[in-house]
Structures are given as structure tokens and as C-alpha cells.
Amino acid sequence: MLPLDELPGRALATRRAAADITRAAVLGSYGVAGFEAGLRERLHAALVGRTPGIRITFREGHLSIRLTLRVTVGLPVAEVARQVDSAVRYAIRRALGLEVDELRIRIGGLEASPGTQPPADPVQRGVHSSDLADSGTDVA
Fold first, then answer.
1. CA-to-CA distance for 52 and 22, rounded, in angstroms?
2. Which among 64, 71, 68, 74 has a CA at the least distance from the CA of 51?
């Protein structure tokens, strides 16, 4: 039996596979609210079947990835970008056995996560003589 490194043949990875791996790594990173893309890029991505905000290029054995992201407001943008860089490089290396030669991360916007409405103040009403009787307690 031959070791895995010496098996004849070759394996091919498509840009779509690299984009799927990249998308999963990016969206799994803390602080990333999603991908950012302009109208033209979104339309082009929909027609071609790509993910807007991700551009993958394979040229002469070099892998280049460009990302445009939205980051959650209140988090350190540089730290989120560092985490995304590390996650993408690790995921591509692990899944495809390739090194990312160039990884550009552009922050296209900040997004505030919608919170819930604060609870309404309870209606303050005065204490009445019938409150004890209405409470159902048996106090004499």
C-alpha cells in the first residue's frame, strides 16, 4: 500500500468549494454580522451563483481571497478581522491542503444587533383597603 502522499493522480478544488469553506469559517467567527456587497455585486453574484462579499481567485497555483464583511457594533474591528483571517486560513488548509497566498478583509459596514424592547414600567397604583381581601390571603 502506498502512503497517501505518493498516490498517483490529482485532486481538484473548485472556487465554489473554496467559497463554501470560506463562508462557513467567516460566519462562524465571533463578531461577524454577515457579508457586505453593493447592488451590482449582489446582482452579479445571483446570476453567476456566487456568494456576494467573497471573491476567490486561483491563478498559477496561488490562492487569493477577498472578503467584504459587516461587523457587529461595539466589538474591536481589528480583532474580529484577525480572528476571521486565522479561521479562513485554517479552514482552507485543513479542507483543501492549500495555503492562502493573499487574504484581504475589508469591513464594509457595522451592524447593530437589534435588541428586545425594555420591559414596560408596571403601573403604580395606590394601596386600597380592599387589596388584602382581593389577594385571597386569610389574615385576621
1. 12
2. 68
82-95 pLDDT, tens digit per residue, is 999 999 999 999 99
- CATH of range 12-113; options 3.30.70.1350, 2.60.40.3500, 3.40.30.10, 3.40.1190.20: 3.30.70.1350
Written as one string, the DSSP assignment of 14-72 is -HHHHHHHHHHHHHTSTTEEEE---HHHHHHHHHHT--TTEEEEEETTEEEEEEEEEEE
Question: Which one has a higher pLDDT value, 112 or 116?
Answer: 112
C-alpha cell at 112: 447593530
Cell of 36: 457586505
- Percentage of the chain lying above the pLDDT 90 cut: 44
Q: Say which residue the cell 451563483 belongs to.
A: 49
Cell numbers 502512503 correspond to what residue? 3
